[in-house]
Amino acid sequence: MMERYIFNFLLAIEGVLSNKLRAILTALGIVFGVAAVIAMLAIGTGAQESILNQMKLIGTNNIVIKSKTELTQDESDSADQTSGQNQTNLRPWSPGLKMDDLDGLKNVLPTIEKMSPEILKQLPIVYNGKRISTNCVGTNNAFFDLNNIRFFAGSPFHQNHLNSGSPVCIIGKTVQAKLFNNGNALNEHIKVGNNWLKVIGVLDRRIASKESLDNLGLRDYNSDVYVPIKTMLIRYENRAYVSRNDIQGRGNDQSESTPNYHQLDRVVVRIDQTENLQASADVIARILKRRHQGLVDFEVEVPELLIQQQRKTQDTFNMVLAIIAGISLIVGGIGIMNIMLASILERIKEIGIRRSMGATKIDIELQFLFEAIFISLIGGLLGIALGVITANLISRSVEIPTVVSTWSIIISFGVAFSIGLIFGLLPAQKAANQDPIKALRSD
């Protein structure tokens, strides 16, 4: 029985190779359809990986509160109405984003799990004759957990460091590489600004593309130096301390940019459950607006919801690609069916001769079915090669992340086989049902 299958398969290959140009033209529909499937799956897989990487960068269930000093006219007018001011030349006063706001949020919002304040200051760093300029970030230990940052060496801040404003710091991997040539940095002292700080920890390198960091508005954490929030406020700068002249000056509506009066530059809040994200963000915005005298001098963002929206858009795009690929495959299958039906009319005498020599209907059906499958598989192989090349070209030319996985190639190969089987079945049955006597009489 197996020998019969092999014999019919060899006859099918011989029939296809006898007219190579027709076989290739017939397979073009399958080629483009499979290439579209490969490219679509590559784009979809790349997008999924990009989204997962972004989720790792921002952490899950996080809400980001950013301070801002430049307000639009609508925001200023809204604050005027809230505070009851009638003088249009005065800017409403706000205490800005402060440490006290964290306590106010915790006391009102039970969905908050953790909070990490951030104060950002550009400072020069000196060690052993080497000098670099980078960001010094005042924060707490929750910062590392909320941003999924791990330690390469050392440990987070001790409670004593956080309470007393100790002269200690944690450095990123890039800072270690530049100042210590990737050598041991623990317990060494570096000069950050005008203060000497003891290095108690080194962060593990965090790999992230510049595009992902820009899209999410994140810094390169590998290049920063981290100090306890109280150390930043005591030893460097506390913008919450203002004089009467500062307050009066900030009330004037001047053309130049408003000085940064916020004690904190950024706060990251983790919410207990994803379904509470949007509602919690709305409550946080209302609480802060009330505490800031009706002035919306802050921004509340929910990065995870933005990424989910991006994911929905990507899924819609992938669906469109899937429809296009499906249409191409159907057109390719119809092309195979048409060519096989036309081939039967050309080879009626061949069918009659085979039947007269003892071939059964099954043999004839298998021969033409194998031809259809073989043409489809040729198209599938060429389509896979074209799809991989297309995915790489897309990734390089328009900077869309693409990942060609093994399972996508297997799926495409299976689709090509199925198209040949489905659309080759009708022509094969029609060939098998030819009357052998009439077939022998045919020219």
Could you walk me through the main structural features you see in this protein, from its secondary elements to its overall organization?
With 443 residues, the chain is an alpha+beta fold. The chain folds into 2 domains: 2-54 and 308-441, no CATH class; 61-306, no CATH class. The chain is 58% helix and 15% strand. The chain is built from 16 helices and 10 strands. It has helices at residues 2-17, 20-58, 73-83, 99-108, 142-146, 159-164, 173-180, 210-216, 229-235, 244-251, 277-291, 303-346, 348-356, 361-397, 406-432, 436-441, and strands spanning 62-67, 112-127, 130-139, 151-154, 168-171, 189-192, 195-203, 225-228, 266-271, 298-301. The protein has a 6-stranded mixed barrel. A hairpin with a 2-residue loop joins strand 6 and strand 7 (195-203). The longest helix is centred in the C-terminal third of the chain and has 44 residues, at 303-346. The radius of gyration is 34 Å and the shape is elongated. The two termini are 32 Å apart.
Write a brief caption for the model.
With 443 residues, the chain is α+β, with helices and mostly antiparallel strands. It contains 16 helices and ten strands. Strands 2-3-8-5-7-6 form a six-stranded mixed β-barrel.
Number of strands: 10
Secondary-structure element pattern, one letter each: HHEHHEEHEHEHEEHEHHEHEHHHHH
Roughly what is the average pLDDT, rounded to an integer?
80
Note the beta-strand portion.
15-25%
Domain count:
2
Radius of gyration: 34 Å
How are the strands of the largest sheet arranged?
Answer: 2-3-8-5-7-6
Major β-sheet profile: 6 strands, mixed, barrel
Note poorly predicted spans.
Answer: none
Task: State the helical fraction.
Answer: 55-70%
Morphology: elongated
Distance between the termini: 32 Å
The tally of helices reads: 16
Specify the structural class.
Answer: alpha+beta
